[in-house]
Every structure is written in C-alpha cells, then in structure tokens.
Amino acid sequence: MKVRLVSFATASDAMGSSELELELANGTTVAELQQQLEQRYPDLGKLWSRLAIAIDGEVVAGSARLREGCEVALLPPVSGGSPAPDRAELTEAPLRVAEIADRVTHGGCGALVLFVGTVRDTFRGRAVERITYSGYTAMAQARLARIVEELEREHPGGRVAIVHRLGTLAVGEASVVIAVTTPHREAAYEASRRALERLKREVPIWKREHYRDGGAAWREEESLLAPVSDSLS
C-alpha cells in the first residue's frame, strides 16, 4: 500500500525532506513504520520519543495500523466541531486586534478579555531578530476549531476566537490573538487562560527562532496531546 508521510521542524531536518511517498506492506503499524524510518534516517531515532504521530489529522498510538492512501505526520513538540470559521483561523496576514475582538462581541457579553502574544527580542539571554511559524495546517485548523467549540460549550453565552500567524514575524509583531466574551468577567478570564494552554498543548504549530548572531533553533517544548474530549473518552 502507498501512504504519504509528512514531517515538520526537527523531524523534517532529520529526514532531509518534509514529504515522502512510501510503499508499505498492508496492515503496517505505526511502530513498524518507526523501525523502518529509524533504519533509513538514523538522526530520527533520537527524536522519536518526543514525536507525536498522526494519521489523517488524529494523533494515534504505536499499535495503530496504516491504511492505503492515508497521510502520516511526524509531529515534534510544539511551542472537533466547526464554529464560525473566522473564530478559529491560521493566517499569514498581520493580526488586527480590534477586528478580531469584533468577531466575538455581542449584546449578551458583559466582559471582553484579549490576549495578544508578541515576538520578544530575547530568549534566555540571546538576542532574537525574528521568528518563523509553520504548522500542519489541516490538523491545526481542526484543533483550533475544536478548542473554540468546546470552550464555548463550557461557558454558555460566551464566544471565543483564536487567530494565529504563520510565516516570518519581526520582533514586536503579534503572533496570536485570543478574544473571549462572556456574560461575566470570571468566565472570560478562565476561558482565555484555557484557550492559550490548549493551543500550546494540542495545536501543531512550530516556531523557529532566528538570532542576531546568525544562529537559528526550533523551539520544541510541549509534546502534542490528544484533544481534551478525546482523552476523556
């Protein structure tokens, strides 16, 4: 059977390619694929314990079997439902905070909380010049939509928008905006905090820092987790 393999960030570096087509035996498991890949790409072996594996956009265990024509993604650690599409968005365009706030504002909201994440100029004492964000777009979009839907379900009368940049951003530019409206302020604070926590744990977006000294490094700190709704099922 044929499957499509996609990889990101350090996994892509280790393989020397971000996309491959593989011919595998019918019924091959993820664990068996791992063994084959480690033989072909030795540098991948030291990363494997940190990687999440997804089949057609869903994180799976090593025992999962691959299917003809499926897409397998190797997902390094990262720095559901269908709400209104403009409330769960990936974009390469600059983020307009007021416009994103308008997406969640309505007559029943008594509180509006905005979180704006920006590119800072240092990391652990090293001067940062810019950051490049990349993502597994189809999966990231679905995960963002699920987070928005579940948070809105947890907070009746609330609306949530999460908009994240992709591409290269200079110091000071906004990389993510989270806008939350609820009838009361406590719920707005809580939903905003939960949205950021889940974004960092569940959404396959990576960032590569470019330093003023000419160096660059992937920031891979949070292992990808299954969505909250899946982990509780």
Which labels suit this protein?
30% helix, 5-stranded mixed beta sheet, 33% strand, 7 helices, globular, 14 strands, alpha+beta, 233 residues
Q: How are the SSEs placed, and which strands pair?
A:
Elements lengths: L1 E6 L1 H7 L3 E5 L6 H11 L1 H4 L6 E4 L2 E3 L10 E5 L12 E4 L5 H8 L6 E8 L3 E2 L2 E10 L1 H18 L4 E7 L1 E4 L3 E9 L2 H18 L2 E7 L4 E4 L8 H4 L2
Parallel strand pairs: 1-5, 6-10
Antiparallel strand pairs: 1-2, 3-4, 3-5, 7-12, 8-9, 9-11, 9-13, 10-12, 13-14
Helix pairs in contact: 5-6
How would you portray this structure in words?
This protein has helices at 9-15, 30-40, 42-45, 97-104, 137-154, 185-202, 228-231, and strands at residues 2-7, 19-23, 52-55, 58-60, 71-75, 88-91, 111-118, 122-123, 126-135, 159-165, 167-170, 174-182, 205-211, 216-219. By secondary structure, the protein is an alpha+beta fold. The radius of gyration is 19 Å and the shape is globular. It starts with a strand and ends with a helix.
